[in-house]
Amino acid sequence: MAEYYSHTHIYSLLVSQSMILLLCNWQPIWNAIIDFDPQVFIWLGDNVYGDTKRPFKLFGKERTIGPWKNAPRFIPSSPKELESRYQKAKSNPGYSRLRHTTQVIGTWDDHDYGLNDAGKEFAGKITNQKLLLDFLDEPQDSPRRNQEGVYTSYMFGPVGRQIKVILLDTRYHRDPLRSDGSVLGSSQWTWLEKKLNGPKSAITIIGSSVQVISNLSATTRPLFSLESWGRFPKERDRLFKLIADTKREGVFFISGDVHFGEISRYDCATGYPLYDVTASGLTQAVEKAVPHVFSLIVRFVAWLTPTTMRVISTNCRFRSCTYGQPNFGAIEIDWSTTPVTLKLEVRDIVGYPVTGVKFPLVELQSRGSVPSVKAGEHRRHCSLEVNLPWMIKYRLAILFYCSVSALLLAMIGLAYAATLAFRLFLHKCKLD
């Protein structure tokens, strides 16, 4: 890698969360990724689906939804089946071409970990760790093969232009959802503290399979919930404090999991803005999960969902500045400019940017103090979604329940009108 740096002014990385369920030989997004010509490609999890999704069943012997649910919606696949899915992913022609020209690194999320939304309780994690590392061509003598979890770090580039990539494992040690327990576990926290206190780098990229900054679950409940560090507020505060205490500058996050792309920003944690580039996913995204005619509804809901963290720009493809079609993340550092510039983007299936930010690298240097928010005050990029007034925070649920109520009242009204018309008709028939 050092030799390659010697003749280029631009260091480019690419990040993505694939959401691959069934791999076919034709995945056009790989052409866009290869054309971007990244020096490093980073898997952020759900690289394959290592579990099986069962159909919705409201009635019957095994009910996977409803108040009387008695069977899980997701069940783990066998190690043999998971290995087969990895082999299928690895043999994809587009990905094979990328592997021959680009260094590939990565971590996992719940579906390639083995089970939807699973944490430390999942019994198959030891076997599945080996399968992931085989997929990533991790050397047999790598420390990752002997530790509990797949977290790791890399340093790229020459002195003065070094980029540290830290990939977290948000599954192996994670406590149950709603517990506000640990995400990383004690051993990984010790390791992360050591890495952030280690040799300095111009840029430090922290890869998390789930979103770090965005806390959309605070505004989408009770309709649906998303996994994120925001579901573990004590752990997220600890992460931000660690970055601040180690005086590590040039830090930003990359993440996936949510089936759409967006860029988030938080200004009130470390003395400089923290960005989180969410790219999700390569083949499966939220708009592909619904019939095409409902795409506009999905985009409207995305725009209506309250968010104080999302970066909003007139250059976004859609007004919400989220992107629900297949996408990948792109990071470019231009060392030739003064000051050095950093460009963070989410790109579509043909490689065109759909949302992004560009700023000088010096913006990610501490300004000495962390902005504060007064009680009752709400500031963009500073007030977490969970702290919004309830009328704003739950406006999506309020609109949904009001719409359902209006629909039910309309149906009742139509039924009453039809009954009244029918009775009038019978009365007329009797008179005739």
TrEMBL record:
Residues 145-269 form the PhoD-like phosphatase metallophosphatase domain. Keywords: Membrane, Transmembrane, Transmembrane helix. Coiled coil: none annotated. The chain crosses the membrane at residues 398-426. The keyword Phosphoprotein does not apply. The keyword Lyase does not apply. InterPro entries: Metallo-depent_PP-like, PhoD-like_MPP, PhoD-like_sf. It comes from the Eukaryota. PANTHER family: CALCINEURIN-LIKE METALLO-PHOSPHOESTERASE SUPERFAMILY PROTEIN. This is PhoD-like phosphatase metallophosphatase domain-containing protein. It comes from Populus deltoides.
